[in-house]
Specification:
Length: 291
């Protein structure tokens, strides 16, 4: 194989509980994640050395997680060749949707195939965890529960979630994830029971009632992202129910029962407020992919 084109999916957190602070500066979390079909595209081609390019200029530097993933895999596997890698962004950047982490996981899996390294998901997991707390989840995708700082992944049966409207306000804050975790107060911490309740429901083949959704960053995000409250209120005014942030924000999402309901909501967000949103559906890994 000399060439490969892959989709990297975004995620939402159906629950995200922060249990407490750890000695190493991270936080212990318990979260149920779901991949959705909002995507980036990664093109890989065998080459003598590593080269990386992206259609978004700010993401082209050596700090990009895709290039870090490629370098890490090449070094760990002792692979002599390289790859020419091109990333096309469709997932909003720094938005709580896991785009960078998904790109990194997709690069690990794709290069593993392209280079014929034959590493399993279990063998790729420690490399993924080195790149970021959310990266191991994206080696699996679908519905999964994560624990620890997010790197311990337990795949779940597919959650019965069909459509989701995602609204991503253009509000940037520096070092967002670290700042958001750092801003949590004691009373934002919970013990994981809400997630376990949803886990049982999903394992039992049940649907995902909107009132089971939870995100520890909901309250903090309203204050931390200037203007987010207005997005939230107007989203709800259009009929969005149980709105939560994705990850540590600022993207907001609401589950909708039918595609038409989501399309109508998206159109209203665009026409009334000039806000672009995404109507996405849940994505499960192709059968056999997660073995
Ligand atoms: O793992 P990642 O590089 O995505 O984390 C970015 C920052 O977010 C960490 O340096 C840490 O400050 C914070 N974080 C945390 N607890 C987690 C995940 C991230 O405190 N479970």
């Amino acid at each position: 194989m000399t060439k490969l084109t892959l989709k990297a999916y975004a995620k939402i957190n159906l629950t995200l509980e922060v249990v407490g602070r750890r000695e190493d500066g991270y936080h212990d979390i318990v979260s149920i994640l779901q991949t959705v079909d909002l995507t980036d595209t990664l093109s890989l081609e065998r080459a003598d050395a590593l080269a990386f390019d992206c259609d978004v200029e700010e993401l082209r530097g050596g700090q990009n997680l895709v290039l870090k993933a490629a370098t890490l895999l090449k070094d760990e596997a002792g692979y002599a060749g390289g790859a020419s890698i091109h990333l096309e962004k469709g997932i909003p950047v720094s938005a709580g949707l896991g785009g960078g982490s998904s790109d990194a996981a997709t690069a690990l899996k794709g290069l593993n195939d392209l280079w014929g390294l034959g590493l399993s998901v279990e063998e790729l997991t420690p490399l993924a965890a080195k790149l970021g707390s959310d990266v191991p989840f994206f080696l699996h995708g679908g519905t999964a529960m994560v624990q620890g700082r997010g790197e311990r992944v337990r795949p779940l049966p597919p959650a019965d979630v069909s459509w989701v409207v995602i609204l991503t306000p253009q509000i940037a804050i520096p070092e967002k994830t670290a700042a958001m975790y750092g801003g949590l107060a004691e009373n934002d911490f919970t013990r994981g029971m809400l997630t376990r309740k949803l886990e049982a429901r999903i394992r039992g083949g049940g649907d995902v009632p909107p009132q089971f959704l939870f995100n520890a960053f909901d309250t903090l995000a309203r204050g931390a992202f200037p203007g987010l409250k207005e997005y939230w209120e107007r989203f709800e005014a259009l009929g969005a129910q149980e709105v939560h942030v994705a990850g540590s924000g600022p993207s907001l999402f609401s589950l909708v029962p039918r595609r038409e309901v989501g399309t109508a909501m998206s159109l209203m967000l665009e026409h009334r407020h000039g806000w672009r949103s995404h109507l996405a559906s849940a994505v499960q890994p192709a059968k056999g992919q997660d073995e």
